[in-house]
Amino acid sequence: MIGREEEKKILNNLLKSKNPEFLVLYGRRRIGKTYLIKEFFNNTFSFYTTGVQQGNRKQQLRIFNEALIKYGDDSQTIPKDWFEAFSRLESLLEKGTVTREYRSDKRIVFLDELPWMDTVKSDFKSAFDYFWNSWGASQKDLLLIICGSATAGVINNIVKDTGGFYNRLTRQMHLMPFCLYECEKLLESNGVHYTKQQIVESYMIFGGVPYYLNYLDPQKSLAQNVELLFFRENSPLRYEFHQMFSALFDHADKYINIIRELSLKKYGLTRTELIASGNTPEGKDLTKCLENLEQCGFIRKFSDYSTRKNGSHYQLIDPMCLFYLTFIENGNLGTWMEYIHTPAYYAWSGLSFEKVCLLHIRQIKQKLGIGGISSKEFSWKSKTTKPGAQIDLLIDRKDDVINICEIKFSNEAFAIDENYEKELLHKVETFRKETSSRKALWLTMITFAGLVNNEHKSIVINELTGDDLFNQVEY
After folding, report:
1. CB proximity list for 74: less than 8 A, separation 6 or greater
2. Are 68 and 109 in contact (CB under 8 A)?
3. What percent of the chain lies above the pLDDT cut of 90?
4. What domains appear along the chain, each with residue ranges and CATH number?
5. Chain-centre distance of CA 448, in angstroms?
6. What is the pLDDT of residue 356?
């Protein structure tokens, strides 16, 4: 299994536990949740079933019943309700012939895509509460695992539950996209031989989602793969954007509208600005949507450095969403080859590389030698100074230093000329003036291919390259 080292440690600890364990695993669609659990446990489940997207109560119970029969239940009739379904599961798990995990002798129950089982006006949640609290929580050799792509449903109905599941969960696991190091290992295992720059470019398109990377044909270039995966009428990922949000959220259009608005602003928008657009929900509905998008990793929430107490900014950080909205939904050209080396391509590549960097803050901090120092990360733009200034990334450190990071993506070493040197110094001084910061301000350049060694480079305190983003970091 490629990557997932921290997750495998958690699963090993659960196997060694002498207590009943209840693991909630969540994460966005296609991230590899089911694959992780099935591979780690080698499919040695005492019981496994999955919910069906948009299935009604009767269909969900029928699928659950088929799984009961597969694992040894003697009944043949479909349960009349979820209380009967979980009662039969309890009886099945108490049989002496039940399958046990070969390393630990534990009974492993895996309920996949659980939010889809909880249909409207069903008794699913009450029955599931009762199953765990009346029986499961007393079984010392039981490991119950639930997961779902509908991350919001898992978090709101299970993780944040104040009823039957309150303080009952023993472990939560949010499965995140691969980092560049893991993507490189995955591509190597698939026989895809790309340079580090090409791997970064693939990340700028697919993010770190293993499912998408597994589509890459080893015998085709990255550009050819992108053409085949997105730009043909029957391309496998052409409609993935809308399918992804429909699978994750009820009323997916609300979420897509928020993503569209955020895609238009490099540094994100405040809640007030989102509402002012007229295209997004308001009130509690907007709060819920923003929380769910953040939990799924599509956006990040941060406070502007100089106005932390006056509200938060929301910024799109998912590479694939940006790619889709730029070239598929809003694009005017028919093929990827037509886009390459156009102004739209260069504008997108610079913005997308910034998002890759935001998703690799741990690697950046490790290269800077501050992995163990607490910090907060912001973007920033000036409010009063003319001409204005914008900063891609601030790393505000507890050791009284702020790294002012400028991010540039280019195929060759980037040269700081006299004009750009003045622009960088203007950013630093504008930030100091408007924030009145007393911390040391260290100009930090993050480029893919490094900096040209000239007389203007001396203003840079720290320099990072694309290779540094591939560092393996302990989580």
Report:
1. none
2. no
3. 74
4. 5-174 (3.40.50.300), 180-238+328-345 (no CATH), 241-317 (1.10.10.10), 368-470 (3.40.1350)
5. 23
6. 96
